[in-house]
Design goal:
It comes from Poseidonocella pacifica. The protein has helices spanning about 5-15, 25-30, 55-60, 70-85, 105-110, 155-180, 190-195, 215-225, 230-245, 250-260, 265-275, 285, 290-300, and strands at about 35-40, 45-50, 95-105, 115-120, 140-145, 150-155, 205-210. It is of the alpha+beta class. It has 3 domains: about 5-135 and about 200-260, Gyrase A, domain 2 (2-Layer Sandwich), CATH 3.30.1360.170; about 140-200, no CATH class; about 265-300, no CATH class. The two termini are about 40 Å apart.
Length: about 300
């Protein structure tokens, strides 16, 4: 993750500042402020600002003032109760603002989570950097034969070399043409808002992304899942670590009930009850489709 000297100087200057405040702060999150956490080959995530902590969640749930009258152990129990019963508004009391650098095709997946405030680097006004995401060989996979949205085995040998060469060469050639089109050296130069259409989806963009904790956890539940695309999952994994330091009680409950838990349909629960009674249940007698049965088997092991 190459940071320019100017970017590193800005981060160092921000981290050197200290501000007095009466509002609650989270010591774990204070350690993350402004620091750029590397993701992929040129990307990063850094926390710009945040509001709230575990106590803010409990305060909102109890509609109390100050720290209330409950103990810390009761706070964790309350948060677990709220998570277990799918309460949402107390978790909306916490917010986080991130600066994210990511490939455009990852951004197009990410932006589907519409419950956030986003401001993206504008290629209408500014020139994008010559930075592209090129997968490492172990993340260059064939199409999955069982999942139309997933990957199969890694490519190898001459095929892998050829694909990597195409990705690099095509990205560089597209950027060469982009620079040539917007240049005003001896020509009028094409408008940046038009020239950007020629850039590939693996070029890097940047944005500020502000979201409340409830919707952040929903994002993490989907994107930190093993079935999510690798390139967005690594961003979610980095965010999981940050969130765990920010709201440790809430994150432990989330890890237990969401990441480590499972939701079963009525048919799946019926099959499980029949199995516990000693009945042999198959996909044909379950009432579930092959896909549902495969997922059910994955849950019960």
């Amino acid at each position: 993750m190459p940071l320019s000297p100017e970017q590193q100087a800005e981060i160092d200057a921000q981290r050197a500042q200290s501000h007095q405040t009466l509002r609650a702060t989270a010591p774990g999150m204070e350690q993350h402020l402004y620091t750029a956490h590397p993701v992929l080959d040129h990307g990063f995530i850094r926390v710009i600002d945040y509001m709230g902590d575990d106590e803010a969640i409990c305060q909102a749930a109890r509609v109390s003032y100050g720290r209330g009258t409950k103990s810390v152990s009761n706070d964790e129990g309350l948060i677990r109760y709220l998570m277990r019963h799918w309460h949402s508004t107390p978790f909306e009391m916490c917010e986080i603002k991130l600066h994210v650098k990511l490939p455009v095709f990852v951004a197009r997946q990410w932006i589907r989570h519409r419950t956030a405030n986003v401001n993206e680097y504008s290629a209408r006004y500014s020139i994008l950097d010559r930075e592209f995401y090129i997968p490492s060989p172990d993340h260059l996979n064939a199409q999955s034969v069982v999942n139309n949205q997933g990957r199969g085995e890694a490519l190898s040998g001459e095929e892998a070399d050829r694909v990597l060469r195409y990705l690099r060469d095509d990205a560089m050639r597209a950027y060469d043409h982009y620079e040539e089109m917007i240049s005003d050296d001896g020509q009028q130069g094409l408008a940046r808002e038009l020239a950007r259409m020629n850039l590939p989806a693996n070029i890097y963009t940047q944005w500020y992304w502000k979201v409340d904790l409830h919707n952040l956890l929903h994002f993490l539940r989907l994107r930190a899942d093993a079935h999510a695309q690798y390139e967005i999952r690594v961003y979610a994994d980095a965010l999981c670590k940050i969130t765990a330091d920010w709201v440790p009680f809430a994150y432990r409950a989330f890890e237990d009930y969401r990441l480590g838990g499972a939701t079963l349909s009525g048919k799946a629960l019926d099959c499980l009850r029949r199995m516990l009674k000693g009945e042999e249940v198959t996909q044909e007698t379950s009432g579930m489709s092959k896909g549902e049965w495969r997922e059910f088997e994955g849950v019960i092991g």
